[in-house]
Description:
- With 89 residues, this protein is mainly alpha-helical.
- It has a domain at 2-54.
- The protein has helices at 2-19, 32-56.
- The radius of gyration is 37 Å and the shape is rod-shaped.
Amino acid sequence: MSRMAGGITLIVIGAILTFAWNINIPGLGEHALGIILLVAGVLLVGLTLAMDNQRRRGRTVVEERPVAEERPVVEERPVVEERRRRRTI
């Protein structure tokens, strides 16, 4: 989230330079530096949101395995417990 905070900071500084102060920098227009910082901040916030969204989205890997062949039942026998008879001698 530090990139997000950096982007918001650039937006705030750019807005202050654009709308609140009149700074004359040789070679730049009156509000150019503020607008540059505003655009850079918006881009940084947008890229941070896009990267976080992509990171959150889980990737699912589907592995398909062949199903074993069904074998026919050759002989069915009932399952019965045989009791042993006790012999008394």
